[in-house]
Amino acid sequence: MARVWLGPAGIPKYAKRAKDTVEGIRAVKELGLNAMEVEFVQGVRMGVEAAERAGEAARELGVKLSVHAPYFINLCSDEAEKVEASIKRLWDSVDRAHRMGAWIVVVHAAYYGKLGPDKCYDAVKERLGELTDKMLDEGIDDVFIGVEITARNNQFGSVEEAFGLAKELKRVRPVVDWGHLYARNGGTIDYGSVLDLWRTTFGDEHMHTHFTSVKYRNGRYVDEHEPISANMPPFEPLAEELSKRDVAITLICESPLLDQDALLMKEILEKHGVRLV
């Protein structure tokens, strides 16, 4: 049976008056959830002391934290200053994650651009390799860079790329965004095969994932998230697969309904005998 950590991407909407991440973490605990992703998607605007306070609250309440790095990252840009700025944003995300005890920093690593898939892979590998070397030099050995599986075919982040990179770089792991994978596959998904690939590649290591339904318009993926009830992809088959496997996994709900849908996911998991840790 899977061991599951489940929570929202950002401060729960339940905590309408939450002033900061600490209050968001408390709200996650009050809802009966046990994970939260701290969203730096518009920029790393959290100071060092605030990150440390968030970490204290998460440890006290037993909430597992992760971080999402800014969207404005492209390690395959043909403009050197954009690559440099991307690395700075990612480094700042790693620093705050380390200070708050968040175990993984999720990143949309690159667009293929003029490099194309193969050269982009090499560039991402080189730049993340340099970054992870710096992490270890600075004593940051408790944070992974999570390369997210992306939805669009012009983005770096196929299953092969994310898993392949993680096999080559020590502090890198793939982050499976189930909705993105569903879109990248043209509206199909095989949960069991991906869970088995993780087990084959990384053994008993903790797996970090995102879940939301995604939107199609005129048969094409639109970069919009939908409530879980849209069933694109359906969540219940994933719950069924998790009930059959001994895997440690985080499920971060990225639905626009956020904590409401996280609680729905919890209900579906419990229906299949899977309870939160």
From TrEMBL:
The keyword Transport does not apply. Its cofactor is Zn(2+). Residues 25-256 form the Xylose isomerase-like TIM barrel domain. GO terms for molecular function: DNA binding; DNA-(apurinic or apyrimidinic site) endonuclease activity; isomerase activity; phosphoric diester hydrolase activity; zinc ion binding. Keywords: DNA damage, DNA repair, Hydrolase, Isomerase, Metal-binding, Zinc. The keyword Nucleotide-binding does not apply. It holds the Pfam family AP_endonuc_2. InterPro entries: AP_endonuc_2 (IPR001719), AP_endonuc_F2_Zn_BS (IPR018246), Xyl_isomerase-like_sf (IPR036237), Xyl_isomerase-like_TIM-brl (IPR013022). GO terms for biological process: base-excision repair. Belongs to the AP endonuclease 2 family. This is Xylose isomerase domain protein TIM barrel.
